[in-house]
Write a structure and sequence with these properties.
Number of helices: 12
Number of domains: 1
CATH topology: Rossmann fold
Shape: globular
Bound molecules: nicotinamide-adenine-dinucleotide
Order of helices and strands: HEHEEHEHHEHEEHEEEHEEHEHHH
Helix content: 40-55%
CATH class: Alpha Beta
Strand order of the largest sheet: 3-2-1-4-5-6-11
Strand content: 15-25%
Number of strands: 13
CATH architecture: 3-Layer(aba) Sandwich
């Protein structure tokens, strides 16, 4: 092969890579009218891809995606993600499936345990079985809750976890999501299905509702109304908050990263903040007169509630596999959330 041939061949190979990377993809996103799902949908549509969403609007909202309705690449179905007939057609016609549909958050699980457990486990079985039938790669959004009460910081994806007893129903969220993880990995083991499991850590930003107890929208809404900000427990427990925009950018990298198939990967921020400090930052950035009021866990969640002091992800695997790091600062995240709540009046 001459030097000229080699150069030409390299140019063709490069072009093929560019074409492959930029080829229009067809995504199915369950839970696509939810907080994270609606941003992911928007991200792919902006890139020119085609997106179908299936959402029963149990915790999501049509308002999150109404502005996309005129886009001819957008298809929305208000339905249960356990609906086999609909899902069969949609999965057969898609290139990659993001499975986000799920009950979310401990407060919802504690207040509506039967419905919440069903909403996590049933759609997963349907979606994963159909992905296996049609050989479609699937990404599941799991949660940092699966690390339970582990005190070995930071949390690495392969570490042992310590969960509480089944008599405390807050653990149902972690255990149901772990069961989802096991189910995906079992299908991979038995059928070779490409599966991706992403454990998310406290994702926040515009469109997250505070109705189900999520801390940042609750704090910002109270601050904008100059009402007391309710901090549960001592407030000295810490969390790491990541921007939904950073997370979506990370989630979108998996279809182009086949070597991440079969892996469990943390995505989140590794900058810790105590809940008291978060409340203080929110008050300052909202220019608010709110005071911080401490509320016991018993009052907030009922008796016998377990909480974790720290929850910090190890991001080495995300860096290595998908070359991802969170970019936005906590202040930026709070301001984006503040502006959205103030401008839309939603909460
Ligand atoms: N937000 C976070 O900090 C966080 C942290 C860890 C994990 N996650 C995971 O990310 C995913 C998205 O969460 P989110 O924060 O966007 O919450 P969300 O409640 O806004 O999104 C979940 C969506 O799923 C829909 N849904 C629930 N059950 C359904 C069903 N049976 N059929 C169809 N649709 C159904 C809801 O209506 C909602 O739109 C979930 O899988 C959740 O477990 C989120």
């Amino acid at each position: 092969m001459t030097r000229h041939d080699r150069t030409e061949r390299a140019a063709i190979l490069n072009m093929t890579e560019v074409l492959q990377e930029s080829a229009v993809m067809k995504y199915l996103i369950t839970g696509g009218a939810g907080f994270i799902g609606s941003h992911l949908t928007e991200f792919f549509l902006k890139r020119g891809d085609e997106v179908s969403i299936v959402d029963d609007l149990s915790t999501g909202s049509w308002e999150n995606v109404a502005h996309l309705a005129d886009n001819r690449n957008f298809h929305a179905y208000v339905a249960d993600a356990a609906d086999k007939v609909l899902l069969e057609t949609e999965i057969r016609n898609s290139d990659f499936v993001y499975h986000l549909a799920s009950s979310v958050g401990v407060k919802l699980i504690v207040s509506r345990p039967v419905d919440s457990i069903r909403r996590i486990v049933r759609p997963t079985e349907t979606v994963v079985d159909l992905c296996a039938k049609y050989r479609k790669p699937i990404l599941l959004t799991s949660t940092s809750e699966t690390y339970g009460k582990s005190e070995s910081i930071p949390f690495r994806e392969d570490m042992d976890v310590t969960l509480g007893p089944s008599s405390k129903n807050r653990w149902a969220y972690a255990i149901a999501k772990l069961l989802d993880e096991f189910y995906l990995l079992a299908q991979r083991e038995q059928t070779g299905l490409p599966v991706y499991i992403v454990r998310l850590f406290n994702v926040v930003g515009p469109r997250q509702t505070g109705y189900y107890g999520m801390v940042l929208p609750r704090f910002v809404t109270a601050a904008l109304n100059n009402e007391p900000i309710q901090v549960y427990g001592s407030g000295e427990q810490s969390r790491c908050f990541s921007s939904v925009y950073d997370i979506v950018e990370g989630l979108a990298r998996f279809p182009q990263t086949p070597n991440a198939a079969g892996e469990v990967v943390n995505l989140g921020s590794d900058r810790e903040v105590t809940i008291n400090d978060l409340a203080r930052r929110v008050i300052e950035l909202c220019d608010s007169k709110s005071i911080v009021k401490t509320v016991s866990y018993d009052e907030a969640y009922g008796p016998n509630f377990d909480d974790m002091q720290r929850r910090l992800p190890c991001l080495d695997k995300a860096r290595r596999l998908i070359g991802w790091d969170p970019k936005r600062s906590l202040d930026q995240i709070i301001m984006e959330t503040r502006d959205w709540i103030r401008d839309t009046g939603r909460q």
